[in-house]
Amino acid sequence: MPTGKKKTATDMISIIIPTLNEEKVIEKTLKDLRDSLTIPHEIIVSDGKSTDQTIAIAKKYADIVAVWDHPEKQNIPAGRNFGAARAQGKYLAFIDADVRIPDPDRFFTTLIDLFHQRPSLAAVAVGIRVLPEYETFWDRVIFGCVNFLFTVQNNIFKIGAAAGEFQMMPRETFERLGGYNVRLVAAEDLELFGRLAKIGSTAFVSALTVYHTGRRAHKIGWPRLLLQWWGNWFYIAVLRRKDKVMSKEWTVIR
Q1: Are 235 and 241 in contact (CB under 8 A)?
Q2: Residue 119 burial (10 A CB sphere; 0-12, 13-18, 19+)
Q3: Domain 10-238 in CATH: superfamily?
Q4: Which residues fall within 8 angstroms of residue 172, CB to CB, at 6 or more apart?
Q5: Among the four 7, 89, 152, 209, which has the fewest Cβ within 10 Å?
Q6: How high is the mean pLDDT in each 10-residue block of the chain (254 residues)?
């Protein structure tokens, strides 16, 4: 729980959001953060050359809008790294474009306090749920199971695991590891947490939750998405691959 202690500028959080044609969801995400978050922070949108109104919307709310300037296509890990390279905060928080964080001051203060209390803490993850207006029965069941598995993997077995909806870590730690693995088209979030767990501890904070639209599961169906998740997990956790996962491409869902 928050201690109520005033945070210093050295505790600034850099919130990094990778985007590509996210005009349907990005304004709500950015506006909620701008209107509700008062502790020291910066919002960085890392855009992969959107062709819709994403960049224009981001410029209204974000502190930094970094548009991909390399000839190759930007994938999700490259987008996260591209945004992180512009960050000035002590902590990096990576979220997706459709994520909502209730009471963000309390949320981030709680996590900063946790980093203060546990100097060896390398990264944190939190609970994930689908927004109530979109949530289905199977969303509740499956994300309940996902949150339980992440609790066990981080807090008991100490092997590190988290999804890309929310991950937070000290910038120094992120830079030490070289960021996300850009060779992976998917499961780069899981792979990074595995590396983080080897240089420190990772924690899953079940008392905190972020919400998202659940659009991928709703578009392609839970059976197909679960197959992709478990197949990519097998490549990372069992085969120990660093260059590829089962998915050939992480299809854009909008």
Answers
A1: yes
A2: exposed
A3: Spore Coat Polysaccharide Biosynthesis Protein SpsA; Chain A (3.90.550.10)
A4: 90
A5: 152
A6: 44 97 98 96 97 98 96 95 97 98 98 97 98 98 98 97 97 97 96 97 98 97 97 94 91 86
Token pair of 128 as six digits: 């994930």
- Which single residue is written with the structure tokens 């100097």? 119
**125, burial (CB in 10 Å: exposed 0-12, middle 13-18, buried 19+):** buried
- Report the chain's C-alpha Rg in angstroms: 17
